[in-house]
Amino acid sequence: xxxxxxxxxxIYNSQKYLKNCLDSILNQxxxxxxxxxxxxxxxxxxDNSKKICTTYTNKFNFIDLIDNKKNLGVSLSRNKGIKxxxxxxx
Length: 90
Hints:
This protein is α/β, with parallel strands linked by helices and 90 residues long. The chain is built from three helices and three strands, in the order βαβαβα. The chain has helices at 15-28, 49-59, 74-84, and strands spanning 5-11, 36-43, 63-68.
């Protein structure tokens, strides 16, 4: 299977908005689409963001999590997601 679209989401202490963000994306894509991946990059959050990410990665096999051990900032976190992505489009 070829991935056409990679959605990369850098996350840092975003528990307040993260669930709404992910639910919004999931509502916009068809469950039948097998050519989309979502890459969550947790940038060493110290709130419940990682727990929320883990809930979604366990529920959906097209969602992956990169968990930074220390805070790298949004640019480096996004770049880590880009390196892991398999999609033709970001």
